[in-house]
Specification:
Length: 549
């Protein structure tokens, strides 16, 4: 018998006792035969949620055609499978919170990897700064860019893109979501890229705006901007796997005007606000480089954001970016760096005062010695989660004591556009609402994608946790959580209130042997109804209990 005593104090109101609750799911059925899509779509076409579709090579939607994908549709990819929306074509992938659209690997559960397929490529006719008719990287012969800033390439809303990203040759990659010259008439909102073999999101010029972006476990960069991108992004999350990085150096933000750092216009000048980029436990041999690598004459601006864990924080690389910072066209305000050993750097041999720029009083940026000082929930740093919700979505809402609850400001002229929400004071991507909940998947490795129309994540049924009880129940104080593990493994135990909010953590990733377990629940909980939740890599089960004192 194993006994752990970890008391924690918190309080809530009384409600009647309820029975134990277990989260069990059905076994994944055999894979149906998917519909192989053609390499060219030249007429209006609809993919429906009662089918599963398979991309085996580059599929081109040509000018004048619209590909509509119903909410809840599953599209799998293999090899060079990539969906390319050419200039003048549209993709309408308009999912919902309860029926997101999923692009994922064709490999079965537990066999999926980064780079199992290509990704999604949108090509528009909005301005870029490259002369002639440039061709988008990774896709032979397909051009992008033009003069229509309001160009419309369609809708991506409530869409997941998993196990994508192929590096064909150096500097010639297919990203999770590639946007080349995409215009502001396009809607990009609630898009998650998971385990991409290159960049999760890359903008090559264009004017498209985006909200609610999530990059989980990318290999290279999370948010890469170049070739004159001038759009706006608000609410974006990046969580990195410290053991997965790229030989080119993995960053949260990478921004260039172009490869030569030229003055070609439009100058790359996107505006990001409310971004959270998290990394921790980086090994000594890491190829993670900088959280923000701003270089080659970029005019990027970042507001109200937080980065943590990279070996280096802000790098202003080269005279172009440094001059732009001095002149006030490259702006960083109300941001936080935390737990970064070398917060301020520049290119080798330079003398620019990066620290002075960051710490200027008008910029109101903050540097914290440790990531713990942010006061975030521990599961926020995990790229794979199974914390008891249906799809293991971490609780990204800010704890009451977090320093990120305040400090945001929207007074800078670059944020005057009505695109930006200006109601919160929180820094980072989340305040009191976890907008990642429900439509995302933080453990797609074990998700069954063999049921057409079923795109919300589910875990395979497991009998690992048995006989889950709290005794005594009701309790006037001390109580024990009892359960049996059929198979040993790593387990976490939390106490939740009736709204599902974590009020105490009893055990985090503890290694438990098979057999009977007994853990002490917090003795200082005030009167109320609670849920004790046991989560392993196989399952998550809960039991309700009542405190009556």
């Amino acid at each position: 018998m194993k006994k752990l005593l970890l008391p924690v104090a918190l309080a809530f109101a009384t409600v009647a006792a309820l029975a134990p609750v277990a989260q069990a799911q059905t076994v994944c059925p055999a894979e149906p035969t998917p519909i192989s899509v053609p390499t060219t779509i030249s007429t209006n076409t609809t993919w429906t949620r009662n089918n599963v579709y398979l991309l085996t090579d580059r599929t081109y939607v040509t000018a004048g055609a619209t590909l509509t994908i119903e909410a809840g549709t599953i599209i799998k990819g293999t090899g060079l499978g990539t969906l390319v929306i050419e200039q003048g074509a549209r993709l309408v992938a308009d999912g919902t919170p309860t029926q997101p659209i999923v692009f994922t690997s064709n490999q079965p559960a537990n066999s999926r990897n980064t780079g199992d397929w290509g990704g999604i490529v949108l090509l528009g006719r909005a301005p870029i700064n490259q002369p002639g008719t440039p061709v988008i990287e990774g896709i032979p012969g397909r051009t992008f860019g033009g003069t229509n800033a309001a160009d419309d390439s369609g809708i991506l809303r409530y869409v997941r893109i998993e196990y994508c990203g192929i590096a064909i040759t150096p500097n010639n990659e297919i990203n999770g979501l590639t946007m080349g010259g995409v215009g502001s008439g396009t809607i990009i909102d609630y898009v998650q890229v998971y385990a991409c073999g290159d960049d999760s999101f890359e903008w090559f010029g264009g004017t498209v705006n985006a909200k609610h972006l999530i990059s989980i476990g990318a290999v290279d960069d999370d948010f890469d901007t170049d070739f004159g991108y001038t759009g706006k992004v608000q609410y974006a999350l990046a969580v990195r796997n410290p053991n997965v990085d790229d030989q080119s150096g993995s960053t949260a933000f990478e921004s260039d005007n172009d490869a030569g750092g030229s003055s070609l216009v439009p100058i790359t000048a996107p505006v990001f606000s409310n971004v959270t980029a998290l990394l921790q436990n980086v090994p000594a041999t890491t190829r993670f480089t900088r959280a923000m690598h701003l270089r080659r004459n970029t005019n990027i601006s970042i507001f109200n954001s937080v980065v943590t864990g990279w070996p280096q924080g802000l790098t202003l690389d080269g005279p172009g970016a440094q001059t732009n910072a001095t002149n006030g066209t490259l702006v960083l305000k109300n941001n936080v760096m935390a737990g970064i050993a070398n917060p301020y750097t520049q290119q080798s041999g330079g003398t620019y005062n990066v620290q002075g720029f960051w710490e200027a009083a008008a910029n109101n940026n903050q540097t914290l010695a440790t990531a713990a000082a942010l006061g975030l929930n521990a599961d926020n740093y995990n790229t794979t989660n199974a914390n008891g919700t249906a799809n293991g979505t971490p609780d990204y809402t800010l704890p009451a004591a977090s320093v990120l609850r305040t400090g945001a400001a929207y007074t800078d002229a670059k944020l005057a556009d009505s695109f930006f929400d200006k109601t919160g004071t929180f820094r980072g991507a989340f305040g009191t609402t976890n907008w990642a909940a429900g439509w995302t998947n933080f453990n797609p490795q074990i998700t069954c994608y063999n049921r057409p129309g079923t795109t919300l994540a589910t875990k395979s049924a497991s009998d690992q946790v048995q006989q889950l009880t709290v005794s005594p129940n009701p309790t006037a104080g001390e109580a024990l959580l009892n359960f049996t593990l059929q198979r040993g493994g790593t387990a976490s135990v939390r106490v939740l209130d009736v709204t599902g909010r974590t009020v105490a953590t009893v055990l985090t990733n503890g290694k438990l042997a098979a057999g009977t377990q007994q853990l002490a629940l917090p003795a200082t909980l005030k009167a109320g109804v609670y849920m004790a939740q046991v989560t392993t890599s196989e399952t998550s089960q809960s039991v309700r209990f009542v405190v009556t004192k």
